[in-house]
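Renewal narrative, Specific Aim 1. Our central claim is that a sequence can be written position by position from structural information alone. The example that follows is taken directly from our test logs and has not been curated for this report. It begins with the C-alpha cells describing the chain, in the order in which they were read.
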C-alpha cells in the first residue's frame, strides 16, 4: 500500500468513530434518555476504533475517560475510578509475577522438562509442545509463551528434518506435516491454555467484573458463585483438560498422520537445550517459591461456605465475615507476589531483587488501559439504564431453548474473534449479554460464560490471536493449513463449551438452566 493510500485509509478509519457516533445520536436521541444516548455514542465510537485499529487499541481505550465526563455522562472522578478497578490490579500483579518467571528463565526450563516427560516420537513432541504451551499460558501471557516456545520448536523441526533424506534443513523448502502440526500446537495450546485460570487471559477478568457488577446492581439475582480464582478453576480448567487432548489427537492422527516411532535426532536436540540451561539458579528457585505461594493463596483463600486462610483471619478477629471479601481479594494475593519479586534478593546476600524496575517496563501496560475503557463503558451502561433498554430488545432471542442459546453464542463469538481482538470483543459483548440476561430473566452464566470461554477459541486466521500471528510469521505455516484445521476446531470449541456448561457447571453450582 502506497503512502498516500495508507494515509487516506487511516483517515477513513479515524472518521469512522465520530461519524458512527453522530449517526447513532441522530437515530436514538428521540427514543432513549439523553444520558443513555451519550453512552451509546461513546460505545460505538470506541468500538469502531477498537475494530479498525484507527489508533493503537490501548490509546482508543482512553476515549471513555475523556468522552464520558466531557459529554456530561459522569464526573471525571468516577470515570477515573474505572481505570483503577481491583481486577486491573489483579492483572497488573499477574503481569509482574509472569515477568519474574520469564526473566529467571523458569518458564523455559519448565517447557523443556515437560517435553522430556512426554516422549521422543513426533506425535509425542507435538503433544509435548501443545501441553507446555497450554500450561504456561495459564500463568503468563499467550504472546510470551509462543515467543519462548517458537525458537525451540523451529530448532527441533530443523534437526528432525535434516535427519530425513526427503527433507532439507533449509527454510525455503515446503514445510513438512510435522513442522506444521508442531507450530499449530504451540499457537492453539496458548489460545486454549489462557482459559484455564482467572488471570490466564484478559477476557476472563472482564467476565469477573461483569458478574460482580450484576451481583451489586441486581442483588435479587441468585448467581450461585463468586467470580474468584478458585471458582474460575471449576469451569475454566475442565475446558482446557478436555480441549487440549482433542486438539492433539486431531493434529497428530487426523489432519497430519504423524509416525509414532522415536525421533532420536529430536531427543538429542532437546537434551542439548536442557544441558545448555545448566543447574537451577538461585533466582529460578526463589521465583518458583513465590509463584507456588501465590498459587496456593489463590486456590485456598476460601469463601462462600468454603474454609480457607481467609476464614482463619475472621476467627482471629482481623476481619468481619460479612465484609472480608471487600478487603481481601485475589488482587491482594497478586500484589503480594509482585512485591515479593522486588523484595526477595535474587541470590543469597545480594543487593539486587529478583526483579528490577527496568525488567517490568515490558509489561503490557496498554492492556490495563483496555480494561479500564471496557469497565467504564460497562459501568455507564448500567448507570444510565442503557443496559435495560438493550436487554429488553433482546427478550425474544433469550427465550430460545438454553442449549441453543449457549451453542449460538459460543459459535458466533468464536468466529467474531477471528477478525477482532478477543479483549475488545469481550468488552463490547459483556454489557450487552449481561443486560439481556437480566431483562430476559435468564441466568447470567447462560449468556456470559459461553461468550468468555469461546472468545479465546479463534484458530483460523493469523490475525485472530497473537499466537496465531507469531507462528505464522515463522514462514513455515501455510495459511490454508491454518484455515483448514482452524475452521474445524472453531466448530468443536462450542461443542466442548456446551458439554462443560451442562456436564460440569450446572451440577457443580446447582444452577437453574
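The sequence written for that structure reads:
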Amino acid at each position: 500500500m502506497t503512502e498516500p493510500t495508507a494515509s487516506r485509509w487511516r483517515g477513513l478509519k479515524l472518521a469512522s468513530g465520530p461519524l458512527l457516533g453522530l449517526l447513532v445520536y441522530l437515530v436514538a436521541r428521540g427514543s432513549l434518555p439523553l444520558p443513555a444516548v451519550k453512552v451509546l455514542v461513546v460505545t460505538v465510537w470506541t468500538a469502531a476504533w477498537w475494530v479498525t485499529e484507527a489508533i493503537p487499541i490501548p490509546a482508543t481505550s482512553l476515549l471513555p475517560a475523556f468522552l464520558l465526563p466531557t459529554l456530561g455522562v459522569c464526573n471525571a472522578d468516577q470515570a477515573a475510578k474505572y481505570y483503577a478497578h481491583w481486577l486491573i490490579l489483579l492483572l497488573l500483579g499477574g503481569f509482574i509475577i509472569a515477568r519474574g518467571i520469564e526473566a529467571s528463565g523458569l518458564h523455559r526450563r519448565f517447557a523443556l522438562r515437560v517435553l522430556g516427560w512426554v516422549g521422543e516420537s513426533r506425535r509425542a513432541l507435538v503433544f509435548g509442545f501443545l501441553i507446555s504451551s497450554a500450561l504456561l499460558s495459564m500463568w503468563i501471557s499467550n504472546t510470551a509463551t509462543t515467543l519462548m516456545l517458537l525458537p525451540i520448536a523451529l530448532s527441533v523441526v530443523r534437526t528432525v528434518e535434516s535427519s530425513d533424506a526427503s527433507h532439507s534443513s533449509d527454510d525455503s523448502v515446503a514445510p513438512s506435516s510435522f513442522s506444521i502440526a508442531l507450530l499449530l500446537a504451540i499457537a492453539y495450546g496458548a489460545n486454549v491454555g489462557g482459559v484455564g485460570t482467572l488471570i490466564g487471559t484478559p477476557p476472563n477478568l472482564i467476565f469477573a467484573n461483569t458478574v460482580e457488577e450484576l451481583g451489586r446492581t441486581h442483588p435479587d439475582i441468585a448467581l450461585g458463585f463468586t467470580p474468584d480464582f478458585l471458582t474460575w478453576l471449576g469451569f475454566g480448567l475442565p475446558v482446557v483438560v478436555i480441549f487440549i487432548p482433542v486438539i492433539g489427537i486431531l493434529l497428530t492422527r487426523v489432519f497430519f498422520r504423524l509416525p509414532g516411532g522415536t525421533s532420536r535426532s529430536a531427543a538429542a536436540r532437546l537434551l542439548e537445550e536442557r544441558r545448555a540451561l545448566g543447574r537451577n539458579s538461585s533466582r529460578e528457585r526463589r521465583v518458583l517459591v513465590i509463584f507456588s505461594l501465590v498459587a496456593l493463596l489463590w486456590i485456598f483463600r476460601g469463601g462462600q461456605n468454603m474454609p480457607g486462610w481467609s476464614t482463619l483471619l475472621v476467627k482471629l478477629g482481623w476481619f468481619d465475615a460479612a465484609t472480608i471479601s471487600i478487603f481481601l481479594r485475589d488482587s491482594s494475593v497478586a500484589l503480594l507476589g509482585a512485591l515479593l519479586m522486588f523484595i526477595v534478593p535474587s541470590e543469597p546476600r545480594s543487593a539486587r531483587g529478583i526483579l528490577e524496575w527496568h525488567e517490568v517496563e515490558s509489561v503490557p501496560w496498554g492492556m490495563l488501559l483496555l480494561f479500564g475503557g471496557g469497565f467504564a463503558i460497562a459501568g455507564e451502561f448500567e448507570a444510565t439504564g442503557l443496559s435495560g433498554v438493550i436487554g429488553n430488545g433482546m427478550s425474544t432471542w433469550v427465550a430460545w431453548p438454553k442449549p441453543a442459546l449457549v451453542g449460538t453464542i459460543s459459535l458466533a463469538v468464536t468466529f467474531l474473534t477471528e477478525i477482532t481482538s478477543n479483549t475488545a470483543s469481550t468488552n463490547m459483548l459483556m454489557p450487552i449479554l449481561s443486560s439481556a440476561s437480566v431483562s430476559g430473566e435468564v441466568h447470567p452464566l447462560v449468556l456470559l460464560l459461553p461468550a468468555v470461554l469461546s472468545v479465546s477459541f479463534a484458530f483460523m486466521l493469523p490475525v485472530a490471536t497473537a499466537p496465531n500471528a507469531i507462528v505464522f510469521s515463522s514462514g513455515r505455516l501455510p495459511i490454508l493449513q491454518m484455515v483448514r484445521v482452524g475452521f474445524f476446531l472453531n466448530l468443536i470449541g462450542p461443542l466442548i463449551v456446551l458439554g462443560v456448561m451442562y456436564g460440569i457447571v450446572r451440577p457443580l453450582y446447582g444452577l437453574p438452566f
